[in-house]
Here is the input.
Amino acid sequence: MGRRKRLAQTQSGAEGMHSLPALLHRNATRFGDAPAYREKEFGIWQCWTWAETAREIRSIALGFLELGVAKGDHIAVIGRNRPAHYWSMVAAQMVGAVPVPLYQDAVAEEMAYVLDHCGAKYVVCGDQEQVDKVIEIQENLQQVKHILYTDKRGMRKYDHSQMNALDDLMAEGSAGHARFDAELDRRIADIEYDGTCVMLYTSGTTGKPKGVVLSNRNVIESAKNSAEFDHLNRNEDILSYLPMAWVGDFIFSIGQAYWCGFCVNCPESADTMMTDLREIGPTYFFAPPRVFETQLTNVMIRMEDAGKLKQRMFHYFMAHAKKVGGLLLDGKPVGFGDRVKYALGNMLVYGPLKDTLGYGRFRVGYTAGEAIGPEIFDFYRSLGINLKQLYGQTEATVFITVQPDGEVRADTVGVPAPDVELKIDDKGEIHYRSPGVFVEYYNNPDSTASTKDAEGWVATGDAGFIEESSGHLRIIDRAKDVGKMADGSMFAPKYVENKLKFYPDILEVVLFGNGKDRCVAFINIDLTAVGNWAERNNVAYASYQELTANSRVLETICSHVEEVNKSVAADEMLSGCQVHRFVVLHKELDADDGEMTRTRKVRRGFVEDKFSDIIDALYDGSKQVSTTTEVTYEDGRKGSISATLEIIDAPVVPVAQHKVAAE
Amino acid sequence: MLDSSEGYVTEDGRKIGGVVMEMKNITLRFGGVVAIKDISFDIREGEIRAIIGPNGAGKSSMLNVISGFYIPQEGEVWFHGAKRPQMRPYEVARQGIARTFQNIALFEGMSVLDNVMTGRLNYMKTNLFQQAMWKGKAEAEEVENREAVEKIIDFLEIQHIRKTPVSRLPYGLKKRVELARALAAEPKLLLLDEPMAGMNVEEKEDMSRFILDVNDEFGTTIALIEHDMGVVMDLSDRVVVMDYGKKIGDGTPDEVRSNQDVIDAYLGVSHD
Here is the structure.
């Protein structure tokens, strides 16, 4: 009986809900008057209830039918986070089509590849800029049948024979409802639990982007599990500002929003995001580390301009928060006196500060994508903001591991999410299996086969290990970057680099040591932070190069390296990765010179070749190295800079020859 | 030449209507200095009309004549088919003419929103007492005008600085706020005095797009003065070229570009 029940459930979907349109219908009937979407427009938050949303989406779907959208057609959506764009995606599902959200800042060529690959016949564009790109692409790609746009501005002069405003499409759809109602209801009823829900293109740092096909099952099960994990309910408010093409936004702003029935708030424009955040005060929030970093920097800068009393109060109570705030949040025992003092601090400092940041109602939130600096992480947590980390991928419908309440740490990414199985293979690569595992890469069986095995296990491409004491997963690095030192111990450059990069003075680090007996590093200083320091300490400098050679700067950097070495030495597996010698580079690593990708990721191999003379000097024990480097200026001209760099020996912590990891 | 009663169709297919404003034999003197010498031209409904010329050619003076700030000693200004009498600036504004300034003239201490709201002055009917009481009529009026202003803020994409004091804004944005204030008056004729002066390439591109969009969306007739030849030639439908207070060319950008007098004025030949 139990088994049969389970079987019945898997066929018809969680709680009988097998698609987003079905969830929409449920929400509109059960709590039709509750807010579903808000968007700030003309300075006012416009609101749509679930009942209204259901009507709007139905109009779009009817419009799609009138356009002749067939089952299985792909409908691309290119634009910023707006209710109409989210609605278009759900409307596409209603008529049996597949929504494909794209990155709106992609240039025309990148977009051309994706549109061609998915064969989109219909495109919903945010504004004239996106329409222009699609028209440009259309010259070579004769497949797009109809373009729709949400913002009418500047569109008057266009040839509308294959183009229409979404508003007008909705009006036409509603007007023709008598003709299409029956067909639409048929199509909604035909949606299958294992049918395609959405197709998302991975950003593709290596090679061409791949279209990840996610089924209704993937999305709904993942949304359900994660919502239950964090006890999300329909009273949540989220701010949707991250790219719609990113899987996270699809799950938070559509999957979880429809599952729980909470409200999605769209900012007025990309530039007003911080103001809108403050006005909405989300209860559930997601941001990459950079958002939190920027906010913290702003707070610190503004505190320096505050009055003496405020400054003293801020620092006094922040010190206290650092001591007990995190413990209180984790529900650990804290003395009565400290609790009273924290409550006072909450009244005077933490509360007002959280309000200013827009986190006054913050109940739970996540950061992911990159490593977050422990100090930044602890700052927010000490204020009582329940910020956690998760680890995920598009292929997993986001969730692989998440941090449960009370077990939050800066250096792990948590335990496997509900229903997720994890395993680490003998090379250290993380694999997972879950209900969220993607169906396939669209039209790419080779890649699908090499990523997902017959039993449904997916290789993440990341190396990591499960901490025995806590059961938490720790990510070390991209699997292809992880190597071995001469003595066989693990070499994981990213781990050490991140630790160094958490210092504001340090912009970029490249660690070398694969196959060698010890590690050496290139360091780039952060001109803004170090320049600021120089100004305050009356250190005169004429150029970046001069600042990098300043002895006091080198001393500071050396002290950072020493601290990092201590913390690396404490780690059993990675103690071999301590930085023995380093140089502060005379130029910033730059994408124009090919040393980095456009997304600011270091190209290790390239850097290793280009600066091989410096690396040699780091290993042969010399005190200085003279080098000449070619640079490319922004206008494409080339020049060269030469410098004599001082090589610095960093203090390392001696490590007893440890056992080689069991193999 | 053009028949004054009919319009023409531009290259990109916009229909330009009849004459909105006509300058007839304008001469303007400051003491002994002749700033404008016997100039005639017209501005048609829906067009973007540029006035260009080297430094000191009399462009700004011309704009001030159009806006009614300077009264020419000779000549007539015809607006909507009637000879315009001597008017005070607010009377000009009520006729539906708005302008921006070469040197930004905003209220520096006020927010962007408040600055743009001042552009709605002609649409506010309540008196000082009613506004002090605020509730009722003044409130309704403010809501109505705020709505119009918000549409313009949205149009010019300055939502993120809505509450920012103007003094804290960079130059390029101040220019945009000035345009917003002029637009708030819902002008029939918009005068722009060097809208791109001092801007970098990107800001110029943005401003050009806004000017074209204003013309396209609201059908506003625009007369602008500009130094940057490239920008003017791309933007305008017809161009008047001035040099030393005289009109030396008038026509489409292509016509003007091939006009020998214009080439001389810009490249420089000796004036005897």
Observations:
- The two ends of chain B are 31 Å apart (CA to CA).
- Residues 29 and 35 of chain B are 6 Å apart (CA to CA).
- The mean pLDDT of chain B is 86.
- Chain B is about 35% helix and 25% strand.
